């Protein structure tokens, strides 16, 4: 009779779903998204590239 009582308790523990860890993970994800979202809204760094003297492409000698 003691074995049947233990099996009922073990089955009950397996079927329960703990919400606290799920809520904790969800809140951590929300915080991570809130911190990283402004990084995507900022414009990228502007780089001023030098202009070419001529618009023609120079021919390069193929190395064999």
Automatic annotation (TrEMBL):
The chain crosses the membrane at residues 20-41. It is found in: Cell membrane. Keywords: Cell membrane, Membrane, Transmembrane, Transmembrane helix. The keyword Transmembrane helix applies. This is Uncharacterized protein. It is a single-pass membrane protein. GO terms for molecular function: transmembrane transporter activity. It comes from marine sediment metagenome. The keyword Plastid does not apply. One of its GO terms (cellular component) is plasma membrane.
């Amino acid at each position: 009779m003691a074995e049947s009582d233990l099996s009922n308790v073990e089955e009950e523990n397996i079927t329960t779903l703990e919400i606290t860890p799920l809520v904790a993970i969800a809140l951590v994800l929300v915080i991570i998204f809130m911190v990283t979202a402004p990084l995507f809204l900022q414009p990228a760094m502007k780089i001023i590239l030098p202009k070419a003297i001529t618009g023609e492409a120079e021919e390069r000698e193929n190395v064999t």
